Amino acid sequence: MAGSLPDNGVPGHHYSKQHDEDLHNGLKPGEEVNDSPIEQVRLTVPITDDPTLPALTFRTWVLGISSCVFLAFLNQFFGYRSNALSITSVSAQILVLPLGKLMAASLPETRIKLPFFRWSFSMNPGPFNLKEHVLITIFANCGAGGILALGIVTAVKAFYHRKIHIMAALLLVQTTQVSPLFPSSAVFKLLGYGWAGMFRKILVDSPHMWWPSNLVQVSLFRALHDKEKRSSGGQTRLQFFTLVFVSSFAYYIVPSYLFPSISTLSFMCWIWKNSITPQQIGSGLNGLGIGSFGLDWSTVAGFLGSPLATPLFAILNTMAGFFLFVYVILPIAYWNNAFSSRRFPMISQQTFDSSGQLYNITRIINEREFDINLGEYESYSKLYLSVTFAFVYGFSFASLVSSITHVALFDGKSIWELWKKTSAGSKDQDTDVHTRLMKKNYESVPQWWFLAIAAVSFALSLFTIEGFGGQLQLPWWALLLACGISLIFTLPIGIIQATTNQQMGINVITELIIGYMYPGKPLANVAFKAYGYISMSQALSFLADFKLGHYMKIPPKSMFLVQTVGTIVASTVRFATTWWLLSSVQNICDTTKLPKGSPWTCPGDSIFYNASIIWGVIGPLRIFNVKGNYAKMNWFFMIGILAPIPVWLLSRKYPEKKWLRLIHMPIFISGMGGLLPAKPVHYLSWGAVGIFFNYYVYKRFKGWWARHTYILSAAMDAGVAFMAVMVYFTLQSKNIYGPQWWGLEADDHCPLAKCPTVPGIVVPGCPAVY
């Protein structure tokens, strides 16, 4: 399998004396070891288990639900701000440890019997243990994940400026069919849980599906719970984490409050202050980013995830695609005025008309039916995109279909063999010590649990779109189609994510399909995307958490229950936060009416809104077909289908050249199309840090890398998150900002990089071009 090679191309097993001794804690003497085929897993994940430890305790429920509520509120709150911040479950993972130990030290051990039931429980079943900690972190993961369905409410209320009653919005996000507060956005997620049940044997039990991002949390769990002896002159992992966390926390006051401009430094713009072309070349946010960099961990990891948790081959594929697009394809296309691109900014996620101005969507909307007014559209203008935005869509087409070809060629035979063994109930499967320990010590989740959730969720989804006056504009047959698309793509995209830490999005495909089949309906388009994309995305999130539980030896039924409850709690809290902000912040998301410096710019939702214009209101027929400006983008489907074939043929012809199998065309293509909202400075910073640690440090200091790299990533994330929250609630929420000076702007000071470069286009703030 393509994912079975060690991610840095380094073969061989790694056993220590302690590693062999530890086997007796989980396996019988003489039982086969068969550790993971992935070296990073062997270096990180323990092969021990104590099945007697309590997992789903009173402490788990209290701290888990609290963490879920905390992260759901903060992430939804910060998601509407220009300095959008994603607070990961790592923050909760750190905070709950002392709280768990405090509860273990103070709560009574007396068992409490539930009235009318035979059940009883103790609030304090003993010392706070690792398995409780893992389940609490799974709760926190539910709160940290986003909910695309809430973007529908934001788009209607904040961007389209249409009135919507609170009950109409609530019924969009919640239904009353199962319980008084059962979120419809949770339906999207729970629908995906059904898909997860179908593929868990391949994507969780298989040792080749190793989910690299989980190793960060595994390393942190070990640092927080393992008892270590500090070597002379050295540090334990917990001491190293504390040192990096405090340093990251203290430093982030600079980019978050005192000197935000340090997040993107573009030197060419400082030299050529009055020239458009040098600023387009040098701007890290709105240009090619040559010479730009950021001294801020959120610049490195904020958009593309931590490079320390991404395999080296995935980083190299991503960066190769990025360099080909940004430094070859994009300059050629822009300066040759392809698609009239010089009328608009080189890099922008907004939509434009033929005069270079922002597209006036209210002009072409029928207020009563909330669909397109074709007469006004024909008399106004076709819709235009920046050249980057156009190619991003093209590469999205290519990367998605290339993932199917890639998985079919490289992994198809192995998947089929494993599927046959699974279907036949064969015990002769490709397993490792972790899978055998899980099967030996715990009952698996019955398949009918997953199928029941899928069936109930589908029924609730159907009720949501058909009821309440058809406010979602989506017909019943579209729900069936969306579920089918999600089911088809879950396995190939799951294999790519499980081996590369990169997820291919199917959002563009869902938008394209419903845009052709049911044009002119913006809410139908975004609802179809939510059902088709989110159910797949949540299936993969569910499987990733299951793999974390697999590594940490958590009972699968406890994992299932925590995931389901966490989904419902997080969805409810995020809806309440969304409605509160949309109702209380005046002109939220409307940058033309917000006061200068207001943070409520909704960067993520603005992309969602523009996508609803492109795919829903106007539709792909008038943009990506002969009636539009970007019909040539459809060739990228053919490019994507064919791209993996030469690599596969070469790897078959030259099997001794292992590096050929590390050329991953879906990741390579997605590297070309990954811009927006990430910008060149984010790619350059992410790639530099990732290559330094996962190549140079890995090669020269493998012992240090194995012990500290994932802990370094977790500590950097946690320091940034804690300082950002503290700065907001102590200072920025009270309108107390840093000293007024040049570096206080969260910008790279390249204003001319956004300007058009053809004569006759007049844009405020840009010099006239003659």
From TrEMBL:
Residues spanning the membrane: 58-78, 85-107, 134-156, 237-258, 312-335, 383-409, 448-465, 477-498, 560-582, 633-650, 682-698, 710-731
Keyword match Transmembrane helix: yes
Entry keywords, A to Z: Membrane, Peptide transport, Protein transport, Transmembrane, Transmembrane helix, Transport
GO biological process: protein transport
Membrane topology label: Multi-pass membrane protein
Family: Belongs to the oligopeptide OPT transporter (TC 2.A.67.1) family.
Protein's name according to its UniProt entry: Uncharacterized protein
Organism lineage: Eukaryota, Viridiplantae, Streptophyta, Embryophyta, Tracheophyta
